[in-house]
Target: Uricase
Amino acid sequence: MDIRLIGGPNLIELIENRYGKSRVRLVKVTRHNGHHDLYEWTVEVLLEGDFDSAHRVGDNSNLLPTDTMKNTVYSLARSSSATSIEKFAGELASFLLERNSQVSAVLVKVESVLWKRLTVDGQPHPDSFLRGSNERQVTRLRLERSRDCTINSGFEELVVMKTAKSGFEGYIKDSLTTLKETNDRLFGTAVSADWNYIEAVTCGTDIDFKALHHDVRETMLKAFADHESLSVQHTLFAMAEAALNGFDAIEEIHMVMPNKHCLLVDLSRFGQDNPNEIFVPTDEPHGTIEARLRRE
Ligand SMILES: O=c1[nH]c(=O)c2[nH]c(=O)[nH]c2[nH]1
Model:
């Protein structure tokens, strides 16, 4: 079959487009009397709207430069009193919608790395901080001109390990199976979870997003720790189920849990036993377990 087209030019439809600035990084210090607060955020801002003529004929008259969007992030960070990434994302989206009639929707993603206050001589230090881990809080907010708003929040790379109550047995065995069944293995993972807030939360003005995030995370961690795990899939479900049962504010959760294998070292070559004490942690290859859950 000849798949080349013959005939004249076609009418081409621009089905979808958005543009903006990514990886806008900022550190903000809020100087209170007696102590400072520290935030490190990475922001992405994308606009959707009437940009047909820019793509079709190079008419830039409807384009707000992405450079201006970057400046808007910094300027708003200075004037805003938002302490949660959700509030800041909402303010940024509203600001851009109000000033740009050609824009139909604004998408803002904010990632926050975790700076913890240093404890010195048993006391929280007023102005020194510790970068704990690579865990990030993330929010993705979409604000439409109609004022419809969706907020998806969560965390990435929350690294955890269980040294008991984890096994993997009863799986398919075929001619290529080498994995040994076990009812006692290490279960290490870097959890990424994101959840959608219900409309009442998204539109609420006095929602404490930081407290909500903290409580959802704690609930998931407790489920991880307490779970009698028959597989990563089993524990992922238990963690998401605990969050969905614990928080009416959440309607759907998406989770990714890589299985960071720890392989038992064979010490019999040295005449030693190895009762599940010495392992080799491996980065690659790793299992990938992913699911999306919601309340029925
Ligand atoms: O919890 C697990 N789930 C799997 O699907 C799987 N596959 C595998 O090789 N090990 C594991 N562990």
User: Anything to note?
Assistant: The pocket of uric acid is lined by residues 168, 179, 231-233, 259, 287 (CB under 6 Å). DSSP finds six helices and ten strands in the chain.
